[in-house]
Protein 1
Amino acid sequence: MTNNQLSHLDWLESEAIHIMREVAGQCENPVLLFSGGKDSICLLRLAEKAFRPSRFPFPLLHIDTGHNYPEVIKFRDQYAEELGERLIVRTIEDSMKRGTVVLKNADESRNKHQSVTLLEAIEEFGFDACIGGARRDEEKARAKERIMSFRDEFGQWDPKNQRPELWNLYNARTHQGENIRSFPISNWTEMDVWQYIHREQLSLPSIYFAHQRPVVKRNGNIVPVTNITPAKQDEDIIDLQVRFRTVGDISCTAPVISDADSIEKIILETASTTLTERGETRLDDQSSEAAMEQRKKEGYF
């Protein structure tokens, strides 16, 4: 007897493909946010299943802080080229030259300033929807997001002014200047992402896997030693075997101690962790209880 029941990954994939097609059908000029990270890599596979053999009905966009891990940037460019899809890159450094981003000091993290550059890119290209890889399990503010998250004409998010989503009916319609942030994998967990990567045999940047790296221990975190995050005078540099659960700006993305050098080992490690990936490794989210929510209200992903 044939078992026709869908696995939980099949259900999640089907929902995500449906959401992507809704964005493509309802929006005139959408874009998919692609950083080279694991969540956006899953989005690209979902887009392939939703729209191939045609080209994607949207370009890819990365807001580059200029302080990203080189392994991830190299992977981003190679993967977009392999897919044959258009990749648009806009940098915070360009916003700094325009004077729309002003750092308090040279050592300030550029991560939160991505909001400005993203809003500038949305205005430049007239995007009415941005498809992103955020998930509800990552952080409390992201748990408040709708699948189709409405942003006003100023690019701002008001968690108290969102459209109802009943029976998987999604409203992505906007007026001129307004924007939708769509999150097709919003209902996925970190474990779902890794299991999907394993099932689909997706390639990843090497820093997701365990490797030796010089680090320092600072305020209970492991901080990689780089030209962006050098060791302080009183800190001892040590070599540890680490991996990254999430990737982003070097100034605020910390690794974890790990010997997981394969996807199978990462899945086992993920099953035993009690901390979310952002809670354990994103230093910018640890600055306050409402750090992410404030950034999202200002236009962040």
Protein 2
Amino acid sequence: MKKKSFRWSDEIEPHKLRTRTIIKQHPEIRELIGRNPYTILVIAFCVGVQLVTAYLLKDAAWYWVALAAYGIGAFACHSLFVCIHECAHNLIFKNRVANTWAGIFANLPTLLPSSVSFQKYHLKHHSFQGVEALDADMPFVWEAKLINNSSFGKAMWLLFYPVFQALRPFRLKEINLFDSWTLVNWAVQISFTAAVVIFLGPKAILYLALSFFFSVGLHPLGARWVQEHFLTHGEQETKSYYGRLNVTNLNVGYHNEHHDFPSVPWNNLPKIKAIAGQHYDTLGYHTSYTRLLFEFLFNRELSVFSRTARTNRGKISAPVAKPLNNEALVA
């Protein structure tokens, strides 16, 4: 069965009500709100891992480069993406500029200058989840139609996920993606990439590029994008992941907890579940990214259309046309 539409909801973003309920029952959770400046050490470590590995592989055969990117670089890069995410929420330093610089630093080995832009559009995802005009995490309709539910198409979607993700922010008309900080991000990134090419050579760049694509693409870690908001458990919009790769993910697998309390740094997210477990234990969740990856690829009931979309953004209507049918299916 091929889906022709996202699941459409008339409700606003789903996390606010649970947040108010939990805070009322467990006001001590407010003590978990804050920052974790030690995250900068995680950034420095992962950047160092990528640079050292790139240096060691500068004269290696291409297949060793690819294997190292899949087995080492993908994990380091994924951790760096989560650190950029922490910077977007200002969860490392009190000073916003310091967080911006930390994000630019974390961005270096991933080659694509994206940290500053991510800071601008990510918070909209929290406030307007599923609203296409404001949520860059929502796929395009044409993207979902192109891929739909074929196993090969979904594999290609994951492999080239960075390309699709890079296109989505340009539809966010209410956000100015280009400013002086964007130029700084690009200038630093181009300078870094040029230095790697000059001093380490093309194999090092190949390692960094493959690490980037694997870290968010056709890899067990890429299943995170399915885990977070794909409809794998009925109509539940957000799912958490409680598995071992939360070490690499810096606990961003605790995704319901993060959306409910986005001002809580990564190291405190498991404490939210420990305190308010009665609100999370009854929700669907995942424990294996590898199992979820294969389920997404081979379950024909799951497609890029397996997301909840909405036009309701609160008091103002978003400029997105809602289809006449709720979720049309065609054999």
Protein 3
Amino acid sequence: MSDSIETTPRSTPVALIVAVGAALLAALGGLVWSYSLNGKLTTTQTELADAKQKNVQLAADLRETNARLRVTSEETAQSLGLTQRQMDARAQQIIAREQVENKRLEAAQQQTAQQVTAVQSDVSTVKTDVGGVKTDVAKTQTDLAGAITQLQSMKGDLSDHSSLIARNHDELEILKHKGDRNYYEFTLNKGDKKPVGTVSIELKKTDSKKARFTLVVYADDMKYEKKDRNVNEPLQFYSGKDRGLFEIVVNTISSKNEITGYLSTPKTSPAPAGM
């Protein structure tokens, strides 16, 4: 029994030491964990503070950006508004110009229409006038034909040829309108030598009471004397390169030894110099 009593006191301190050691280890582990946790917490708090600072900076930057955007938006709106006003003003100018141009075109169209109407009226008038002229021409032709039939046909001093003669200026105009010969009127005094057409005529003698006269014709270096001839008698001779028939007709003899008449030449004969 004494041995048993002595064994028990020896085992109790060991267990206590083990327990105390375990407790110390646990406390030490807790202390280490607590220290480690405190370090992590401090780091986290620092990071959180940095994050808050960054958030503050970001918020400030965001406010500045928003302010700039508002300014830009306002300026853009103002710029767009100015452009719109300019476009509106330009549109009004274009509309006003188109209205003026339309009015000008309308006026031009009205003027053109009036001119067309006037031209149509003139054309109608011209047609009427042409119709009248045709009628007048036909009447003139009829009158000319009638007048020609009334002209006297006389045989000239060359026995193989007869021709129509004009006894006065009016009848001579009828012959001119007939258009188959050339006619040159003349007035000649006694003793005068005068060019008529392509020949020359010299008046030698007149007798107004008997209506007779004597003259000399100079043509192609030839001399033809027509002696004691009557008024309205065709005095004929040949002249020119083709030897065409020329005629002289004296219509009047005045008391002052003056004669009037005309020279008739073929249509193909040369024209006098200076004509």
Protein 4
Amino acid sequence: MAQATRTPIAKHLGDEAEDLLDHECETIPKDQIHLPGPDFVDRVWKGSDRSPQVLRSMQQIFNHGRLGGSGYISILPVDQGIEHSAGVSFAPNPMYFDPENIVKLAIEGGCNAVATTYGVLGSVARDYAHKIPFVLKINHSELLSYPNRYDQVPYARVEDAYEQGCVGVGATVYWGSEESNRQLQEISKIFSRAHELGMTTILWCYVRNKEFVLNGSNYEGSADLTGQANHLGATIEADIIKQKQPTLTGGYQAVRDHKDEGYAKDPSLVDEKLLTDHPIDMTRYQVANNYMGRCGLINSGGASGENDLQQVVRTAVINKRAGGMGLITGRKSFQKPMEEGVEILNAIQDVYLDDDITIA
């Protein structure tokens, strides 16, 4: 057994421990990636067009919580009250109908920041904005209209985030959807204004189009399509990109084969040189599309279910070894009693604090 698999984290990975902890990425070398670290803001962002105020806001996030000073981040996101409906989201644990408990979970869980809605932050801003970095998730897709629509619409102004004491603004674009052109124009303006006011920007960078579900495979989660979504997100000056960790690749080719052979461009060289089906290599491709890691990649934790602790540890190991910056995990933590939610968040952070888990 190789040295890496002796870390205590290995016990959570089961039969995958050796494959995930000892894998070496041979597609995009790690020495080409701008890796996270304590000096990330100075090393990567200082020479950019981000103002001193934005750099300070970035550093506030990097300095907070259990991961403070490491260059890695763990964020609690709770926008599901709108995105998934409050009843469905909070039925497993109704205490989170009260916004204060959302912020308390982020603090008790040692998170770098809490990312949530305008109403949630506004209801507790005076008590907590100085205790943990606030990120306002500014647009949402609601599930009350009939039939359900999947479109992101702004719920607040950037100035509202500033007045609440936020250090950052978050937003979603559904790349690949019919509404994506409007959304990218809205969010480009929102991010520009956020930077003017000294706040950092985080993009929920999701691929959404039912035509990408082919023969039982959902290519909305493919490495090549999500990677390109990330690149578009970096182009509108997202400082950090939230993306689902890829589960497969070949999205472009699948659409060309099953829908339209003229779709996009021939991806064969990408598939040949830059991707394999190993989860670390697929996630490395996402990092590469984040301007080789200049924009931090934080992967999402996904829905709550069985074996949540093992699942988040696996996701964190893949993200870290790929060159990612951390995890942003909501339902797996707030749909549990607070003590268990804190345990989940701490388990994620332990991966990034473990020096035996290295970059592939």
